Amino acid sequence: MSLSSTDINAAVLAREPAESGKPSATYRVAGDRAVLVEYGEMEFDLALSFFMLAVDDAIRTRKLDGLIETAPGFRSILVSYEPDDLQVDELIAFLSDVRRDLNLSSGVQIPSRLLHLPIAFDDTQTRKAVEQYVQRIRADAPNSEGGNNIDYVVAYNGLPDHEALFNSLLSTEHLNVFMGFFPGLPFLFPRDPRHAVTAPKYNPTRIWTPAGAVGLGGPCWSIYPVESAGGYQLVGRTVPIYDLERRNAAFAASGLLMRAGDRVQFHRVSEPELLELWEDVYADRYRYEIVEGNLDVQEHLDWAAELSDEADQLREARERAATTIPVP
After folding, report:
1. Cβ atoms < 10 Å from Cβ of 124
2. Are 98 and 54 in contact (CB under 8 A)?
3. Which residue segments constitute the domains of the chain, with CATH numbers given?
């Protein structure tokens, strides 16, 4: 273990430098019953998410007396423990050993179910959320012109039309890196970098968003698990992903449908079809299509690297278009 005491303060317990196949690690105090571990630098890099998810899986597999639970973030993981049963230095030593034994270039796989979810684009409920925002919050919001957010996202990314945006979402699996903000809310990033899109969030936020709404904020897609406030640009709606009443068999083990590491593949349906599916979900007639499996990290990284030149050209075109569009 190469834990460093250099530049350690009351908040930082230990640091480890980056090495081949491993990002750096910073171990931080998170109250008196948790440690927050940050991997790598503060940048958008899915490789850091893969490493964090591999750490999470290894922790669950190895187990440790006194360790309560883990909560994955994008490039960090919050590890809760019972101080009466486990000392913080013992926990850090354990986490350091987990990191030492992982190497993204040596066949690491992470648990990754594939969920097939329907989506109805430009539906009446998400339009209602936008219209309420214009009427009650901000009439001059540039992202809400025309009573929808889709026009804005299309223009911000330099796309030719609505269908180009919809096809971008439909054409790749999306990796759920972590759950957060609201219970059961996934943060989804496209596996195929050529289908990345981005958009700034609302300013200020909405006061209402329908459950199941699919929105884009920054480079991240998300699904709203419950009716709530929100700031992501809305493009459509899918089926329930949260139900504490567990009215459908998919929620038997948990009121949350999704887990960190899951992948989502959307397929298109009409709004009438989607509304029928909502009824079928709560009547336990609908069966979610969930395929158990794993994601080979190195295989994904190699594949994404092959697409990097094309993805960079598309990103540069998006960035040029964004400079011409007002930010909310």
Report:
1. 13
2. no
3. 12-103 (3.30.1360.40), 114-322 (2.40.100.10)
* pLDDT tens readout for residues 14-52: 999 999 889 999 999 999 999 999 999 999 899 999 999
Closest CA to 28 of 44, 17, 39, 43: 39
pTM assigned to the model: 0.93
Helix (H, G, I), strand (E, B) or coil at 261: coil
75 token code pair = 């490039």
User: Which residue, 320, 241, 310, 319, is CA-closest to 281?
Assistant: 241
Residue 181 buriedness (CB in 10 A; 0-12 / 13-18 / 19+): middle
Please list the helix, strand and coil fractions of the chain in percent, rounded to the nearest 5, in that order. Answer: 35, 30, 40
For the chain, list the strands marked E by DSSP: 12-16, 25-29, 34-39, 67-72, 76-81, 109-111, 114-121, 174-179, 186-190, 206-209, 213-217, 220-223, 228-230, 233-237, 263-268, 289-291, 294-296
Strand-pair category, 114-121 with 263-268: parallel
Amino acid at site 209: T
Q: Identify the three-state secondary structure at position 237.
A: strand
**Rounded CA gap, 154 and 102, in Å?**
40
pLDDT of 3 reads 62
Q: What is the pLDDT of residues 123-150, one digit of tens each?
A: 999 999 999 999 999 999 999 999 999 9
Q: What is the DSSP letter of 213?
A: E
- Sequence-separated (6 or more) residues with CB below 8 Å from residue 76: 36, 37, 38, 39, 52
Q: Tell me which residue has tokens 């030593």.
A: 93
